[in-house]
Input
Amino acid sequence: MTLSVALPLAAGEAAKPKKPVLEIRPTPRFGFSPLNVLFVAELKGGGDVEDFYCPEIEWDWDDGGKSIKESDCPPYEDGVTHIERRFSQEHSFVRAGVYAVKVTMRRSNHLIARQTVSVTVRPGLGDPSNVP
Output
C-alpha cells in the first residue's frame, strides 16, 4: 500500500504546470536512398510553460548536416500566451546508413529538451555506398 500526502501551497503560491515532453516522428522511418523524410517534433502533455515559449530548434541529421530555426516572438504573457507544440522539417538522406537524428530545443542558450530518433536508409540505385 502506498500513502500519498499532498502538502498545501503557501499563500500566494501557484502550482507549477508540468513541463511537456518532446517526441519525434519520422515519415518514413526506413527506405531506400535517396530517402526524403518528414520529421515532426511535438511537445506532448504538460502546460504552457514559459521555458518552452519561442525556442530555438536544432535538427542534427547525423549525416554531417544541421538545420537551425530561430524564432522572433513577442514577450510571454502568463495565462495568455500559448506555446507552439509542433515543429516540422524535411531532410533527404542520399547515402545508406542508420542515422540518429537529434532534435534539440533551447531558449536563451539553455537546453530545454532533446530527443533522438533513428532512420534506416538502405542503398538505392545510384547510391555510392552500394558499389562493391
About this structure: The chain is about 0% helix and 45% strand.
